[in-house]
Amino acid sequence: MYPSARIIFVGLACFFAPDTTKALDVGAASCDITPDVTAHKVPLAGYGARKSQPSTGIHDPLHAKVLFLRDGKKSMALVTCDLRSVTPLLKLGWAAFSLQKRARPPDS
Questions:
Q1: In terms of DSSP H, where are the helices of 1-108?
Q2: What is the dihedral of CA 32, 36, 42, 48, to 10 degrees?
Q3: Using an 8 Å Cβ cutoff, are 44 and 55 in contact?
Q4: Is 66 within 8 Å of 28 (Cβ atoms)?
Q5: From the CB of residue 50, how many other CB atoms can be counted at a distance below 10 Å?
Q6: Where are the domains of the chain?
Q7: How distant, in Å, are the alpha carbons of 7, 75, 102, 106 from that of 71?
Q8: Cα pseudo-dihedral 18, 23, 24, 30, rounded to 10
Q9: Labelling 68: which of 29, 36, 54, 79 has CA 20 to 30 A away?
Q10: CB burial string 52-64: b at 16+ within 10 A, e below
């Protein structure tokens, strides 16, 4: 879909949306998660020729991004990271963090 068509579609959707809908809180954030390759040996992945060799520089920065949506009753966060994979420890940490946040009242 062309960018101008998307704008028109979103505008029409907002115009024809019923007035009885509740407010939707939306938030977005991004942060740089590029590792310091001079201080740490960051392993590379993807090409056999680079196997077991550490990174020697940075071509593009890596980012973590989040889109947060809340309608007053339910909330959700979509998190993306510019990573090849995540460790099981990182997954468990995020799962525990999200469960802790779920147990708190919405205004916290």
A1: 3-16, 88-102
A2: 70
A3: yes
A4: yes
A5: 13
A6: 20-34+61-102
A7: 23, 7, 14, 10
A8: 130
A9: 36
A10: eeeeeeeeeeeee
| Distances 40 to 32, 43, 103 between C-alpha atoms, Å | 17, 9, 37
Look up the pTM and report it.
Answer: 0.60
Report which residue type is found at 100: Q
- Tens place of pLDDT for every residue, the chain, 108 residues? 555 566 666 665 665 566 555 788 899 999 999 988 888 888 777 777 777 788 888 899 999 999 999 887 888 888 888 888 888 898 898 888 877 766 655 554
d(CA 102, CA 64): 21
Return d(Cα 108, Cα 104) in angstroms, integer: 6
Here the tokens at position 51 are 């196997």
Q: How many residues does the chain have?
A: 108
